[in-house]
Design a protein that fits this description.
- The structure is a single chain.
- By secondary structure, the chain is of the alpha+beta class.
- The protein folds into three domains: about 280 residues, 3-Layer(aba) Sandwich (Rossmann fold); about 90 residues, no CATH class; about 160 residues, 8 Propeller (Methanol Dehydrogenase, Chain A).
- It has 15 helices and 47 strands.
- The strands form eleven sheets. An eight-stranded mixed sheet has the order 40-41-43-42-44-45-46-47, with helices on both faces.
- The two termini are about 50 Å apart.
């Protein structure tokens, strides 16, 4: 009896303590929105600009003063101002006839000359140059702004132009132009294709915004041209309820193949010999545009390499073109039972041979392979139970390759990319970044030095200058300053690792706590989700750990959590493949197991009240969680969700769900599970979303209505995929929905986020 009475008191205390979410909480949440919080994160990153002639680098950095411009001596790492900012501010004030602050110069397009004695930049509409020695400000030259549908050869002798969907070449010395192709038209165009996010009014005769596909050889003698066939293309449509003028809504269209489409826009390639001014089709089969992943020219030869995937992404071919003979041959092939992931594709050519390095998961982990004419089979360079993340540089003279990878070091989060070097024969692998952190590398052009920006989800960024040959640190250049953020009460995110659904596999994530965190309270839990197999959701560096959608919600007395379950990226092939034709799993059993385990050691996590939110693939997740795991997830906010993968752009679902679109697409569809809804669901979509068409949410709404389910639906007029995500009204409605349904209290009415 005493135990029952005590439990009732605890429950009453919980209800009372969580019935007081008011305007002050919302104001605090607004302070923690990324755009506001970022203003208080100083010395957060070094983006280096190298001047090797003078052995220096320079960069701009935000400090409590404002923006400071710094130069660093590469040999000793010593810092000093790039120029006298007070002096330049005075000169600019005189020039612009208005006050200009020394640490708020608001200048852009900065460029330091080779002698490091003159800085050119743009201020408002003026282009200026500043002599650093004489401290003299003068008018500068306005940079050339070439027409969008033109491309200048590397030797600057020839300008390629797309005019009426055909290729013209202009001799830059004589000014003469010649038309090379003559049969191009909008539906079958040379050198151009509609931009991915381009939409147009169906009554407007103007074309889409166009992307250029012209690839010059380094010597300027050859030009590879993509020819795009849209003759059998089907469009998707958007209903613009907020027209630019008048009261008639407008219909917009855009080209987009969806999963399983038998007809898709294709690309074929041809070669232009500039001297002969002729176009020759290459002996390459036309393939859907989303299967052609780029062209690379050899720096010192006349070879070019095409990256081509098969429909469904089960195989990859690297095809070599010899421009002098136009002969084509396949020089590399990779194949998997599930898919060869283009997200893991990285290829780097050697400069002094026909060799190249490429990624493959053929041994169960993503590793580097050396492809050479001297070896029939690709030779594995990196080996072990870890994932290579990027190839950074090939040192051909010393037969070494520099790369980043995660998961090799013991007792280290496997998602943290560390920096390594290894001999091309796989021997003598060395770690060059000893800190257990997320490392981002920027090389000097001569590859003698590099800037290493590193951080963790808990500790701000540190930027150091290192020597490449041995990784030795020359100097620490910047260290993130979060003094003002700590003064706000910000709580460092708590990374964790627990066992997943099988009791054996490690699952990683992060917990976010409110500024006024009290371990004696009981907090509802909200999961921020994005289980798209191409990435992870839990932040691994400081910027993502600080500036996100999770931190503001914590200020409304919630605990936020991110968990990356089986099927997500940057682990073994087996771990990654768990989501293949199984996207509806969303890692849910791993996440539920993790939260239950954490609740045992974190009693302030109330996992009887769990919400979830996400955008795009995360929007799919948020709905799926309520439909597939209704006993655990109670409240969901789903924005721009691709609720049936046949409504998404073809490449993404065909990669992770297979081609053709079979029965598994029905099984993984949220439409077919609408009858399972038990919790509280809010669907949100921008009516101009050209990434995930709003019909995805509308069709789900129709299924929920058919099943007689209660839910909320918000259409954001005039918003596309990204602008909907950042919309302040949506942020506030998301806060309201969780406060109402997880705290059981009425949120402040119509709070306005400025």
């Amino acid at each position: 009896m005493k135990k029952t009475y005590f439990s009732i008191l605890l429950l009453l205390a919980f209800i009372v303590s969580h019935a007081q979410i008011d305007t002050n909480h919302y104001k605090k949440a607004e302070e923690f929105i990324a755009s506001n919080l970022s203003k208080k994160y100083y010395r957060s990153w070094v983006n280096p600009h190298w001047n090797e002639d003078k052995n220096l680098l320079w960069y701009a950095v935000k400090t409590p003063k404002g923006t400071e411009y710094i130069q660093v001596n590469l040999k000793n790492g010593k810092k000093k101002p790039l120029f006298d900012q007070e002096k330049l501010a005075s000169l600019l004030s005189e020039k612009m006839e208005k006050d200009v602050e020394a640490y708020d110069l608001s200048i852009s397009q900065l460029k330091l000359n080779k002698k490091a004695d003159e800085l050119s930049f743009k201020k408002d509409t003026l282009y200026l140059k500043y002599n650093l020695k004489k401290e003299k400000l003068e008018e500068g030259e306005k940079p050339e702004n070439p027409r969008k549908l033109t491309s200048l050869s590397p030797d600057k002798k020839t300008l390629a132009m797309v005019i009426d969907y055909n290729i013209w070449l202009k001799n830059m010395e004589s000014g003469d132009s010649v038309q090379v192709t003559k049969d191009g038209k909008r539906e079958y165009a040379y050198g151009v294709t509609p931009s991915w996010y381009s939409v147009k009014n169906i009554e407007n005769k103007n074309d889409y915004d166009l992307d250029l596909d012209l690839n010059w050889s380094p010597n300027g003698k050859y030009l590879i041209v993509g020819k795009y066939d849209h003759r059998n293309m089907k469009n998707l449509y958007l209903y613009k309820s907020l027209p630019e003028k008048g009261h008639r809504a407008e219909v917009y269209e855009y080209e987009r193949p969806i999963a399983g489409d038998s007809l898709a826009p294709t690309v074929e390639h041809g070669l232009i010999d500039v001297e002969k001014s002729n176009y020759q089709p290459l002996d390459l089969e036309a393939i859907p545009t989303f299967l052609s992943w780029g062209v690379q020219w050899h720096k010192n030869k006349t070879q070019a390499y095409f990256t081509r995937f098969s429909r469904g992404y089960k195989s990859l071919n690297i095809v070599e073109l010899d421009a002098t003979t136009t002969k084509i041959k396949t020089v590399y092939h990779d194949q998997e039972e599930t898919y060869v992931d283009p997200g893991y594709h990285d290829m780097m050519l050697f400069e002094n041979s026909d060799d190249f390095l490429i990624f493959s998961e053929r041994d169960g982990w993503n590793h580097i392979y050396h492809v050479s004419k001297n070896n029939k089979n690709p030779q594995q360079v990196s080996k072990g139970n870890f994932v290579v993340r990027s190839i950074e540089y090939i040192d051909e003279e010393n037969q070494k390759v520099y790369f980043t990878a995660g998961g090799r070091e013991e007792n280290t989060d496997p998602y943290l990319p560390m920096f390594y070097v290894v001999n091309l024969d796989g021997s003598n692998l060395q770690l060059l970044s000893p800190e257990k952190a997320y490392h981002s590398i920027s090389f000097s052009p001569n590859k003698e030095y590099f800037i290493d920006n590193y951080s963790t989800v808990q500790e701000p960024n540190v930027a150091v200058l290192r020597r490449l040959k041995d990784g030795k640190m020359i100097s620490k250049i910047e260290e993130g300053d979060i003094t003002e953020i700590l003064a706000m009460g910000w709580q460092k995110p708590e990374p964790f690792v627990v066992k997943g659904r099988d009791g054996k596999t490690d699952v990683y994530g992060v917990i976010f706590k409110p500024a006024n965190f009290d371990p004696n309270k009981s907090y509802p839990v909200i999961e921020g989700t994005y289980s798209g197999p191409q990435t992870i959701r839990a932040p691994k560096n400081f910027r993502r750990g600080l500036l996100n959608d999770d931190t503001p919600l914590t200020q409304l007395d919630f605990v936020l959590i991110n968990i990356d379950g089986m099927g997500s990226a940057f682990r073994s092939k087996e771990f990654h493949d768990f989501s293949y034709k199984n996207l509806g799993d969303i890692g849910g059993p791993d996440k539920i197991a993790a939260m239950k385990a954490l609740a045992q050691t974190h009693p302030w996590m109330n996992i009887s009240r769990v919400g979830i939110f996400g955008h795009s693939a995360g929007g799919y997740d948020a709905t799926r969680a309520l439909l597939a795991y209704p006993d655990f997830y109670k409240v969901g906010v789903s924005t721009a969700g691709n609720h049936d993968h046949r409504s998404a752009k073809a490449w993404w679902p065909e990669l992770y769900m297979g081609y053709p679109a079979g029965q598994e697409y029905d099984e993984q569809s949220n439409y077919t599970m609408a009858k399972n809804l038990e919790g509280n669901l809010m669907l949100v979509h921008g009516d101009m979303d050209q990434n995930v068409n709003p019909t995805a949410s509308m069709r789900l709404a129709a299924e929920l209505i058919k099943a007689n389910k209660d839910f909320e639906l918000i259409l954001l007029p005039g918003k596309d995929h990204s602008t909907a995500y950042y919309d302040n009204y949506l942020k506030r409605k998301r806060w309201d929905f969780f406060v109402k349904h997880l705290h059981g209290t009425t949120p402040p009415k119509e709070y306005k986020i400025e």
